[in-house]
Amino acid sequence: MSLPLLPPGSNAERSRAYNRGLVLGHVRRAGASGRAEIARASGLSTQAVSNIIGELVAEGWLYEAGRRTGGRGLPAVTYAIDGAAGTAFGIELRPNAVLCALIDLDGRALYTDRVAVSRADPGHVVQLVSQLLDRALSNSRTKVARVLGAGVVMPGPFGKTGLSGFLTELPGWEGLDAQAMFAEALDMAVTVENDANAAAMAERVSGVAAGLSSYAFLYFGTGIGLGLVSGGTIFRGAFGNAGEIGHVPAPFEGGLRPLEEIASRMALTTALRRAGEAAETVTDLDRLFEQRHPAMMAWIEGARPALSHAVHIVENLYDPEAVIMGGALPARLLQHLTETTPLPSVSVSNRADRNRPRLLAGTAGRMTATHGAAALVINQTLTPSLGLAT
């Protein structure tokens, strides 16, 4: 498989941190790699790569994975990322629950937890998250390496906007500096992001988007959001609110309604409640899908054209490698929606030379945004960024 060249590094003009990121970024994308291969992909000299690899091995980020035979001369030593070299803590805030995950560099969950809350009050939640971190470090299934930082995700939009006041928002957090609050409580670097963006990053670290650099993620949370990844990093927009697709009008019963009023988990549970079914968990939804409950099937029939409309917009605006659907819905239901949602023919993504489906079901699981919160930290560590240069 040929990999696209990463943005070139420089032996003198780029910072040491950026060049280290180029090496880590290539090994992350390509897997175990030799010095010459990394040098070709990064634009760095072989000597510079050798020096950086020496540092990264000494610090525990890389390890000698083996030797590659088949070429001329001595077999090339290959290097891979040591998944146990670091961990990241992820927190997802919902109106009725706080979820957390501690994951390693390979995206493996070392600890997960979910605590129901009657109201996501900022003071109570910050204290609870600090307790959850202590619990995660104490009860992890393996010895915990250095904690690189924490990611906190919550529903958008951020700031006062024309979309403020919807049921899918987190009340009481408007105007607060969540990043500063959590950084002080946890005593570590903290990144704050919306849930759809975090879920998109989880799929890159440990899901179906591994190996993709530009894709879109339709996230089923309480509402429905869109995470956009371009060049391996999240596209946030000017104020961090890019991807608020849940409020975009979509076709429904001969008219138009906001997408999240048609196709979100909130819309699904509302329809089931009206039919006398209290489906509060993913397990409940999975059971009702297996039973082909009439209210479930009616929701699917209404959601499919609305999701098709959303995919059409996303493909023609952003030209992604793929659109992925995932989040807090049963895996079987996500797969069914992926397989049965009609794909528009008038789309830039409708090409004969495609090497993967246009629409994919996410595989990072139902806690994808929680894992994504931690994955944000790992992505910042392992992806080269000019923001690292000083």
Automatic annotation (TrEMBL):
Pfam families: MarR_2 (PF12802), ROK (PF00480)
Domain of life of the native organism: Bacteria
Residue ranges annotated for the HTH marR-type domain, each copy included: 22-72
Family of this protein: Belongs to the ROK (NagC/XylR) family.
Name by which UniProt lists this protein: ROK family transcriptional regulator
Organism from which the protein derives: Rhodophyticola porphyridii
